Amino acid sequence: GCTIEKSPTFGNPAVLQTCTAAPPNGVGRVRRAGLFTDTWLTCEVSGTSAPDLAKRTDRWCAAVVAAAG
């Protein structure tokens, strides 16, 4: 249950992978991967397949990039 798409954000090139699981557990995963200069950076958030999982992932990835400086 995963989809992969090119992403206009989070590096160049960049991809966004979204995986969903069927009930009963309903756990999903959103992963961003992007090339920053000469280094690939990947971040991922897993949780219930709530609509805000992608937003939570974006916030986490932004914090990772900021910390990596």
What does the average pLDDT come to?
Answer: 86
Largest sheet entry: 4 strands, antiparallel
- Largest sheet strand order: 1-2-3-4
Shape: elongated
Portion of residues in helices? Answer: 10-25%
Give, in order, the helices and strands: EEEEH
Share in β-strands: 35-45%
What is the distance, rounded to the nearest whole angstrom, between the alpha carbons of the first and last residues? 33 Å
Question: How many beta strands in the DSSP annotation?
Answer: 4
| Alpha plus pi helix count | 1
Judged by helices, strands and strand pairing, the structural class is alpha+beta
**Low-confidence parts:** none
Q: What features would you describe in this structure?
A:
This protein has 69 residues and is an alpha+beta fold. The model has no long low-confidence stretch (mean pLDDT 86). It is built from one helix and four strands. Strand 3 and strand 4 (39-48) form a beta hairpin. The protein has a four-stranded antiparallel sheet, covered by helices on one side. 10% of the residues are buried. The protein is elongated, with a radius of gyration of 12 Å. The longest helix is centred in the C-terminal third of the chain and has 16 residues, at 53-68. It has one helix at residues 53-68; strands at residues 2-6, 14-19, 27-36, 39-48.
